[in-house]
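Weekly puzzle thread! Below is a chain. First person to post its structure in token form gets bragging rights.
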Amino acid sequence: MHRRKLGSTGLEVSEIGFGAWQLCNSDSWGGMDEPTALRLVDEAIDGGINLFDTAPNYADTKSECILGRALQNKRDKVILVSKFGHTPEGPKDFSVDWFWKSLEASLGRLRTDYLDVLLLHNPPSEIYAGTDPVWTALEEARVQGKIRHYGASLDFAVEVEECLANTNSEVLEAVSYTHLRAHETRYVISYAVFCW
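Winning reply:
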């Protein structure tokens, strides 16, 4: 498995990443059981994958819990990405208060004291305009050592451009990303092919 530098972060990530949305997701994937989920993570690591992407709302927090179990004693071998913004009740919340609660809960479920990357999960445009106080909270979390790098998970290239222009984001995950904007790829993880 080849690895590449992820922008200016200094992180070396596998060219193929493991999207953990499916782990124990009862809505899809035939209701995957825990042994299967744990085996998939182990096989990914054995295959050279070191980039794991999850979020609190994936399988109602089960994805983070499974990764936490699977990565015990392997934390130093992986690049762990999670997200913030969704709430258990459904509506998104990008407040500073929810940021700290969500981050601490994710760290607990993932059984780690830091995330390599934390992404705002599909924030509205007023958030990635760059003036929202959550960006200051992200910097504070970095200073505290709870996250190493941060950015946003977005849907479209125009959002990527705005976020890059208005924030200090180092990593962007784009769901509907086009490679016609090749100059942005040094910052972007693409869901479709996980390329940088």
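Puzzle host: Confirmed. Bonus trivia for everyone else. Confidence is low (pLDDT under 50) at residues 180-187, 190-196.
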